[in-house]
Amino acid sequence: MQDSPVNIMQLDRGKMGGSLLHLAFDSEVGVSTGEFTRGIRTTGSLSDHRWGIGTVLTAPALMNQVEISPGEIMIIRPNTELYTRFSGANGYATVFITPEELRAYPGAEEAVVLRQSSAVLPADPVIAAHRVQTFQWLLAQISAESQTMSAGAADFFRSALLDLMIRPVFERVDYRKPRMQQSTAMLVRAVEQYLNDVSDRPVHNSELANRFGMDLRSLQRAFKDEMGMGLIAYQRQKRLHDVHTRLRFGDGLALSEMDTDLLIKDIAKEHGFIHYPRFTHQYQQLFSEKPSHTMRRGRRS
Fold it and tell me: Which residues form the HTH araC/xylS-type domain (predicted)?
């Protein structure tokens, strides 16, 4: 995202493709948009000083346990932790705006939805579809004119994007409720945070059950509801993702092929993959490439 680093974990199998674009009109307003070809889980705060007002572009998603469809608006307060699950290929668009700029809009002080840390505004399907089409058209125009755009044109596109994404916030008084109990969502987030904190070592499921005072079956069910996969599958997927990150951005930039194989085996063992052939099979299933190919791409970048 534009303002803060966001943790991203690939959920679906296959080679990931996509694009990201960040635009800054000035210090008050910016835009972030992206598309991706596989389902992902994102965690983190979008911004520590600006509101995020956005939508999904292609398919429904789950944001802080609230379902959002393409063209519907989600509002995220600064410094709010956001947990998002995109199932399959999708895209997003987010306008970032400072609290001062947002409060300048008529009706902002009375807007009930701005009292929430995050909320989704339902929309008529026809209006929602038109919103997505308009956003994509505006973005295409901005991209086409970015090198030669005048100050007047930049002000026009800035106003058009703000009107498209922010005006509906002050026209609606209702917002969608979470689809599941917040206690379950908070449990999953706490387990995720714990796994991130100890990501340098494998964690047995019995350790999680003891730490959070729950039996494994309950943890499995909570992750199935929140993530679309059970705890055991999530654990394996996260460990594979951690290995992928190490290979893509970490060690081994100037090693021989033999040294590379040994390093990959060592990294796999560090993350709990003892049986190397099984690890490589699972890795290729998820990322559609061998671990050594990931490391070579890291060397070239």
Answer: 189-297
**Both tokens of residue 244?**
């992928």
Q: Cα angle vertex 49, ends 242, 181, to 5°?
A: 60
Identify the domain containing residue 137 by its residue range.
Answer: 7-170
Answer for the pair 7, 42: CB distance below 8 angstroms, yes or no: yes
Overall pTM surpassing 0.90 (yes/no)? no
Do 66 and 166 lie in one domain? The reply is: yes
On whether residue 175 sits in a domain, the answer given is no
Question: 154 and 12 share a domain?
Answer: yes
For residue 51, what are its two tokens?
A: 């509101």
β-pair type (29-36, 18-24): antiparallel
Confidence of residue 36 (pLDDT cuts 50, 70, 90): very high
Give the other-Cβ count within 10 Å of 268's Cβ.
23
The helix (run of H) or strand (run of E) holding residue 223 is: helix 216-227
Paired strand residues for 62: 67, 85
148-197 confidence digits (pLDDT tens): 889 899 999 999 999 999 888 887 656 666 655 657 878 888 898 899 88
Q: Are residue 188 and residue 143 in the same domain, yes or no?
A: no
What is the total count of domains within the chain? Answer: 2
Nearest alpha carbon to residue 244 among 277, 278, 274, 279: 279
User: How close are the terminal C-alpha atoms of the chain, in Å?
Assistant: 21
* Residue 220, CB-side half-sphere exposure with 13 Å CA sphere: 7
Give the CATH number for residue 126. 2.60.120.10
What does the DSSP 8-state code read for residue 176? B
